[in-house]
Amino acid sequence: MKKQNILITGGFGLLGKPLTLKLINLKHNIFILEKKKNSKRLIFLPKKPKMIIQGDFTNKKLVESIIKKNKINAIFHLGAITQVLDSLKKPYETHSVNVMGTINFLENIRLINKKITFIYSSSDKAYGELNKRKEYKEDDTLDGIYPYDVSKSASDLICQSYSKTYGMKVGIIRCGNIYGPGDLNLGRLIPEVILSTIAKKKFIIRSNGRARRDYVFVEDVVDAYLKLFNKIKSSKDHLKIYNVSSKFNYSVLQVVNMILKKMNSVKLKSIVSNTSKQELNFQRLNYSKINRDLGWKPKTDMQIGLEKTISWYIKFYKFLKNNKK
Protein backbone atom coordinates (compact mmCIF):
# COMPACT_ATOMS: atom_id res chain seq x y z
CA MET A 1 0.00 0.00 0.00
CA LYS A 2 1.15 3.51 -0.83
CA LYS A 3 2.52 5.45 2.15
CA GLN A 4 -0.28 7.35 3.90
CA ASN A 5 -0.41 10.32 6.25
CA ILE A 6 -2.54 8.87 9.04
CA LEU A 7 -4.04 10.74 12.00
CA ILE A 8 -4.83 8.71 15.11
CA THR A 9 -6.83 9.86 18.13
CA GLY A 10 -6.38 7.85 21.30
CA GLY A 11 -2.92 6.92 20.06
CA PHE A 12 -1.61 6.22 23.57
CA GLY A 13 -4.59 4.06 24.52
CA LEU A 14 -4.72 0.28 24.85
CA LEU A 15 -5.60 -0.11 21.17
CA GLY A 16 -3.87 3.02 19.91
CA LYS A 17 -0.30 2.10 20.87
CA PRO A 18 -0.01 -1.27 19.09
CA LEU A 19 -1.98 0.05 16.11
CA THR A 20 0.41 3.03 15.86
CA LEU A 21 3.42 0.71 15.95
CA LYS A 22 2.00 -1.57 13.27
CA LEU A 23 1.26 1.39 10.98
CA ILE A 24 4.76 2.83 11.55
CA ASN A 25 6.23 -0.58 10.67
CA LEU A 26 4.20 -0.44 7.45
CA LYS A 27 6.06 2.82 6.66
CA HIS A 28 3.09 5.16 7.06
CA ASN A 29 3.49 8.69 8.48
CA ILE A 30 1.64 8.68 11.80
CA PHE A 31 0.29 11.79 13.52
CA ILE A 32 -1.15 11.35 17.03
CA LEU A 33 -3.62 13.92 18.33
CA GLU A 34 -3.84 14.00 22.11
CA LYS A 35 -5.44 16.44 24.51
CA LYS A 36 -2.60 16.55 27.02
CA LYS A 37 1.05 15.84 26.40
CA ASN A 38 2.58 13.22 28.65
CA SER A 39 6.16 12.50 27.63
CA LYS A 40 6.44 9.65 30.15
CA ARG A 41 4.06 7.55 28.05
CA LEU A 42 6.55 7.60 25.17
CA ILE A 43 8.41 4.72 26.83
CA PHE A 44 5.53 2.51 25.65
CA LEU A 45 6.09 3.52 22.01
CA PRO A 46 9.52 2.17 20.99
CA LYS A 47 9.03 3.65 17.52
CA LYS A 48 7.97 7.28 17.54
CA PRO A 49 5.25 8.73 15.31
CA LYS A 50 6.07 11.48 12.85
CA MET A 51 4.35 14.04 15.08
CA ILE A 52 2.43 14.24 18.35
CA ILE A 53 -0.05 17.11 18.17
CA GLN A 54 -1.45 18.55 21.36
CA GLY A 55 -5.06 19.55 21.00
CA ASP A 56 -8.71 18.69 21.52
CA PHE A 57 -10.71 17.13 18.69
CA THR A 58 -13.85 18.83 20.00
CA ASN A 59 -12.27 21.95 18.45
CA LYS A 60 -13.56 21.79 14.86
CA LYS A 61 -11.20 24.50 13.57
CA LEU A 62 -8.18 22.68 15.01
CA VAL A 63 -9.23 19.45 13.33
CA GLU A 64 -9.57 21.31 10.04
CA SER A 65 -6.10 22.81 10.42
CA ILE A 66 -4.47 19.46 11.23
CA ILE A 67 -6.05 17.69 8.26
CA LYS A 68 -5.08 20.45 5.81
CA LYS A 69 -1.59 21.20 7.13
CA ASN A 70 -0.49 17.57 7.27
CA LYS A 71 -2.32 16.42 4.13
CA ILE A 72 -4.02 13.64 6.04
CA ASN A 73 -5.15 10.64 3.93
CA ALA A 74 -6.75 8.55 6.67
CA ILE A 75 -8.04 8.94 10.21
CA PHE A 76 -8.39 6.28 12.91
CA HIS A 77 -10.74 7.81 15.47
CA LEU A 78 -10.18 5.76 18.63
CA GLY A 79 -10.29 8.62 21.16
CA ALA A 80 -13.34 8.90 23.42
CA ILE A 81 -14.58 8.99 26.97
CA THR A 82 -14.70 5.23 27.51
CA GLN A 83 -15.25 4.69 31.22
CA VAL A 84 -18.88 3.86 31.93
CA LEU A 85 -18.77 5.36 35.44
CA ASP A 86 -17.31 8.62 34.09
CA SER A 87 -20.06 8.82 31.47
CA LEU A 88 -22.76 8.34 34.12
CA LYS A 89 -21.33 11.22 36.13
CA LYS A 90 -20.71 13.46 33.11
CA PRO A 91 -23.29 12.76 30.38
CA TYR A 92 -22.96 16.19 28.75
CA GLU A 93 -19.19 15.89 28.46
CA THR A 94 -19.54 12.31 27.19
CA HIS A 95 -21.82 13.36 24.34
CA SER A 96 -19.76 16.47 23.60
CA VAL A 97 -16.57 14.42 23.24
CA ASN A 98 -17.88 11.18 21.78
CA VAL A 99 -20.58 12.53 19.46
CA MET A 100 -19.55 16.07 18.54
CA GLY A 101 -15.88 15.08 18.37
CA THR A 102 -16.79 12.45 15.77
CA ILE A 103 -18.91 14.92 13.81
CA ASN A 104 -15.98 17.35 13.70
CA PHE A 105 -13.91 14.82 11.78
CA LEU A 106 -16.72 13.79 9.44
CA GLU A 107 -17.75 17.35 8.62
CA ASN A 108 -14.17 18.41 7.94
CA ILE A 109 -13.61 15.41 5.68
CA ARG A 110 -16.81 16.29 3.81
CA LEU A 111 -15.61 19.85 3.24
CA ILE A 112 -11.88 19.23 2.66
CA ASN A 113 -11.56 15.91 0.83
CA LYS A 114 -14.18 13.16 0.74
CA LYS A 115 -11.53 10.64 -0.33
CA ILE A 116 -10.02 10.66 3.19
CA THR A 117 -10.65 7.26 4.82
CA PHE A 118 -12.34 7.44 8.23
CA ILE A 119 -12.15 4.44 10.59
CA TYR A 120 -14.43 4.77 13.60
CA SER A 121 -14.05 2.80 16.82
CA SER A 122 -17.60 1.92 17.85
CA SER A 123 -18.54 -0.58 20.55
CA ASP A 124 -20.69 -3.61 21.36
CA LYS A 125 -22.48 -1.26 23.75
CA ALA A 126 -23.87 0.65 20.77
CA TYR A 127 -26.39 -2.19 20.41
CA GLY A 128 -27.71 -1.79 23.94
CA GLU A 129 -29.01 -4.69 26.02
CA LEU A 130 -29.08 -8.15 24.48
CA ASN A 131 -32.59 -9.35 25.30
CA LYS A 132 -34.24 -12.10 23.27
CA ARG A 133 -31.38 -12.48 20.78
CA LYS A 134 -28.49 -14.83 21.48
CA GLU A 135 -25.96 -12.46 19.91
CA TYR A 136 -25.80 -9.27 17.89
CA LYS A 137 -25.16 -9.08 14.16
CA GLU A 138 -24.16 -5.97 12.22
CA ASP A 139 -27.66 -5.32 10.82
CA ASP A 140 -29.31 -5.31 14.26
CA THR A 141 -30.71 -2.04 15.61
CA LEU A 142 -28.44 0.25 17.61
CA ASP A 143 -30.34 0.92 20.81
CA GLY A 144 -28.11 2.22 23.61
CA ILE A 145 -29.66 3.45 26.86
CA TYR A 146 -26.92 4.74 29.16
CA PRO A 147 -24.82 7.82 28.26
CA TYR A 148 -21.73 5.99 26.97
CA ASP A 149 -23.82 3.44 25.07
CA VAL A 150 -25.98 6.14 23.46
CA SER A 151 -22.91 8.20 22.52
CA LYS A 152 -21.62 5.17 20.61
CA SER A 153 -25.02 4.38 19.04
CA ALA A 154 -25.39 7.99 17.89
CA SER A 155 -21.83 8.37 16.59
CA ASP A 156 -22.05 5.05 14.75
CA LEU A 157 -25.27 6.11 13.00
CA ILE A 158 -23.84 9.54 12.18
CA CYS A 159 -20.80 7.88 10.57
CA GLN A 160 -23.14 5.75 8.47
CA SER A 161 -25.17 8.82 7.50
CA TYR A 162 -22.13 10.76 6.26
CA SER A 163 -20.93 7.77 4.25
CA LYS A 164 -24.30 7.06 2.63
CA THR A 165 -25.19 10.70 2.02
CA TYR A 166 -21.86 12.10 0.85
CA GLY A 167 -20.10 9.03 -0.54
CA MET A 168 -17.35 9.11 2.09
CA LYS A 169 -15.19 6.05 2.81
CA VAL A 170 -16.07 5.01 6.36
CA GLY A 171 -15.15 1.85 8.26
CA ILE A 172 -16.80 1.00 11.58
CA ILE A 173 -15.68 -1.63 14.08
CA ARG A 174 -17.97 -2.63 16.93
CA CYS A 175 -15.74 -4.40 19.38
CA GLY A 176 -16.21 -6.48 22.48
CA ASN A 177 -14.18 -5.75 25.62
CA ILE A 178 -10.56 -5.25 24.57
CA TYR A 179 -7.86 -6.33 27.01
CA GLY A 180 -4.12 -6.78 26.93
CA PRO A 181 -0.75 -5.30 27.88
CA GLY A 182 -0.40 -1.54 28.02
CA ASP A 183 -3.86 -0.42 29.14
CA LEU A 184 -3.13 2.82 31.01
CA ASN A 185 -6.79 3.27 31.90
CA LEU A 186 -6.19 1.64 35.25
CA GLY A 187 -9.83 1.90 36.34
CA ARG A 188 -10.88 -0.78 33.88
CA LEU A 189 -11.64 -4.25 35.18
CA ILE A 190 -8.60 -6.29 34.15
CA PRO A 191 -5.86 -3.72 34.95
CA GLU A 192 -7.50 -2.87 38.26
CA VAL A 193 -7.79 -6.50 39.34
CA ILE A 194 -4.16 -7.22 38.42
CA LEU A 195 -2.81 -4.12 40.17
CA SER A 196 -4.91 -4.80 43.28
CA THR A 197 -3.62 -8.35 43.38
CA ILE A 198 0.01 -7.28 42.97
CA ALA A 199 -0.56 -4.94 45.95
CA LYS A 200 -2.14 -7.88 47.85
CA LYS A 201 -5.45 -6.03 48.17
CA LYS A 202 -8.90 -7.49 47.70
CA PHE A 203 -10.58 -6.22 44.55
CA ILE A 204 -13.95 -4.53 45.04
CA ILE A 205 -16.47 -5.36 42.30
CA ARG A 206 -18.74 -2.34 41.91
CA SER A 207 -21.54 -4.32 40.23
CA ASN A 208 -23.14 -7.61 41.20
CA GLY A 209 -20.39 -9.34 39.22
CA ARG A 210 -22.80 -11.23 36.95
CA ALA A 211 -22.66 -8.96 33.88
CA ARG A 212 -21.29 -10.92 30.91
CA ARG A 213 -19.12 -9.57 28.09
CA ASP A 214 -17.02 -10.81 25.18
CA TYR A 215 -13.27 -10.41 25.73
CA VAL A 216 -10.84 -10.04 22.82
CA PHE A 217 -7.06 -9.61 22.94
CA VAL A 218 -5.74 -6.26 21.75
CA GLU A 219 -3.32 -7.63 19.12
CA ASP A 220 -6.20 -9.48 17.47
CA VAL A 221 -8.21 -6.24 17.38
CA VAL A 222 -5.29 -4.38 15.78
CA ASP A 223 -5.23 -7.04 13.07
CA ALA A 224 -8.95 -6.48 12.43
CA TYR A 225 -8.46 -2.71 12.07
CA LEU A 226 -5.64 -3.19 9.58
CA LYS A 227 -7.65 -5.67 7.52
CA LEU A 228 -10.59 -3.24 7.45
CA PHE A 229 -8.30 -0.35 6.46
CA ASN A 230 -6.79 -2.32 3.58
CA LYS A 231 -10.22 -3.50 2.43
CA ILE A 232 -11.92 -0.12 2.43
CA LYS A 233 -9.03 1.51 0.56
CA SER A 234 -9.39 -0.96 -2.31
CA SER A 235 -13.16 -1.48 -2.23
CA LYS A 236 -15.76 0.29 -4.36
CA ASP A 237 -18.07 0.21 -1.34
CA HIS A 238 -17.98 3.37 0.77
CA LEU A 239 -19.18 1.82 4.04
CA LYS A 240 -17.93 -1.26 5.89
CA ILE A 241 -19.20 -2.32 9.33
CA TYR A 242 -17.89 -5.27 11.32
CA ASN A 243 -18.27 -6.83 14.74
CA VAL A 244 -14.94 -7.83 16.27
CA SER A 245 -15.00 -10.23 19.18
CA SER A 246 -14.18 -13.76 20.36
CA LYS A 247 -15.74 -16.91 21.76
CA PHE A 248 -14.69 -15.86 25.28
CA ASN A 249 -17.84 -14.57 26.97
CA TYR A 250 -17.45 -14.30 30.74
CA SER A 251 -18.99 -12.63 33.77
CA VAL A 252 -17.04 -10.10 35.80
CA LEU A 253 -16.68 -12.65 38.61
CA GLN A 254 -15.31 -15.26 36.24
CA VAL A 255 -12.68 -12.86 34.87
CA VAL A 256 -11.65 -11.78 38.37
CA ASN A 257 -11.33 -15.39 39.52
CA MET A 258 -9.29 -16.34 36.44
CA ILE A 259 -6.82 -13.57 37.19
CA LEU A 260 -6.59 -14.46 40.88
CA LYS A 261 -5.92 -18.09 39.98
CA LYS A 262 -3.21 -17.18 37.47
CA MET A 263 -1.56 -14.92 40.04
CA ASN A 264 -1.75 -17.61 42.75
CA SER A 265 -3.87 -15.30 44.87
CA VAL A 266 -7.21 -17.10 45.20
CA LYS A 267 -7.20 -16.26 48.91
CA LEU A 268 -7.72 -12.61 47.94
CA LYS A 269 -11.39 -13.28 47.30
CA SER A 270 -13.05 -10.24 45.71
CA ILE A 271 -15.69 -8.16 47.46
CA VAL A 272 -19.01 -7.64 45.64
CA SER A 273 -20.29 -4.19 46.60
CA ASN A 274 -23.17 -4.03 44.08
CA THR A 275 -23.05 -0.21 44.14
CA SER A 276 -23.09 0.27 40.36
CA LYS A 277 -26.39 -0.95 38.88
CA GLN A 278 -26.60 1.10 35.67
CA GLU A 279 -24.95 -1.24 33.21
CA LEU A 280 -25.89 -3.85 30.63
CA ASN A 281 -26.37 -7.40 31.90
CA PHE A 282 -25.39 -9.44 28.89
CA GLN A 283 -23.72 -8.82 25.55
CA ARG A 284 -22.39 -11.10 22.85
CA LEU A 285 -21.28 -10.31 19.30
CA ASN A 286 -21.43 -12.49 16.20
CA TYR A 287 -18.22 -11.89 14.23
CA SER A 288 -18.86 -14.27 11.32
CA LYS A 289 -19.16 -11.37 8.82
CA ILE A 290 -15.57 -10.15 9.26
CA ASN A 291 -14.36 -13.76 9.17
CA ARG A 292 -16.22 -14.30 5.90
CA ASP A 293 -15.31 -10.97 4.25
CA LEU A 294 -11.77 -10.33 5.51
CA GLY A 295 -10.61 -13.70 6.77
CA TRP A 296 -10.25 -12.33 10.31
CA LYS A 297 -10.71 -14.37 13.45
CA PRO A 298 -9.32 -14.01 16.98
CA LYS A 299 -6.11 -15.98 17.45
CA THR A 300 -5.31 -15.48 21.13
CA ASP A 301 -6.69 -17.84 23.76
CA MET A 302 -7.84 -15.84 26.77
CA GLN A 303 -5.67 -17.80 29.18
CA ILE A 304 -2.58 -16.88 27.16
CA GLY A 305 -3.81 -13.30 26.71
CA LEU A 306 -4.25 -12.91 30.47
CA GLU A 307 -0.76 -14.32 31.12
CA LYS A 308 0.76 -11.74 28.74
CA THR A 309 -1.28 -8.97 30.33
CA ILE A 310 -0.37 -9.93 33.90
CA SER A 311 3.32 -10.12 32.97
CA TRP A 312 3.21 -6.60 31.53
CA TYR A 313 1.67 -5.09 34.68
CA ILE A 314 4.15 -6.88 36.91
CA LYS A 315 6.99 -5.50 34.77
CA PHE A 316 5.71 -1.92 34.85
CA TYR A 317 4.11 -1.95 38.31
CA LYS A 318 6.57 0.48 39.92
CA PHE A 319 6.31 2.88 36.98
CA LEU A 320 2.50 2.84 37.06
CA LYS A 321 2.46 3.24 40.85
CA ASN A 322 4.77 6.27 40.69
CA ASN A 323 3.05 7.90 37.71
CA LYS A 324 -0.61 7.80 38.54
CA LYS A 325 -2.82 10.36 36.81
Chart the SSEs and their pairings.
Layout: E1 5-9, H1 16-25, E2 29-34, E3 51-54, H2 60-69, E4 74-77, H3 84-89, H4 91-112, E5 117-121, H5 147-166, E6 170-175, E7 177-179, H6 189-198, E8 204-205, E9 212-217, H7 218-234, E10 239-244, E11 249-251, H8 252-262, E12 271-272, H9 288-294, H10 302-315, H11 317-322
Parallel strand pairs: 1-2, 1-4, 2-3, 4-5, 5-6, 6-10, 7-9, 8-12
Antiparallel strand pairs: 9-11
Helix pairs in contact: 1-7, 2-4, 4-5, 6-8, 6-10
Overview of this protein structure:
The protein has 2 domains: about 5-180 and about 215-245, 3-Layer(aba) Sandwich (Rossmann fold), CATH 3.40.50.720; about 180-215 and about 250-280 and about 300-320, UDP-galactose 4-epimerase, domain 1 (Alpha-Beta Complex), CATH 3.90.25. Helix 1 (about 15-25) links the parallel strand 1 and strand 2 (about 30-35). The radius of gyration is 19 Å and the shape is globular. A 7-stranded parallel beta sheet has the order 3-2-1-4-5-6-10, sandwiched between helices. A 3-stranded mixed beta sheet has the order 7-9-11. The protein is built from 11 helices and 12 strands. The protein has helices spanning about 15-25, 60-70, 85-90, 90-110, 145-165, 190-200, 220-235, 250-260, 290-295, 300-315, 315-320; strands spanning about 5-10, 30-35, 50-55, 75, 115-120, 170-175, 175-180, 205, 210-215, 240-245, 250, 270.
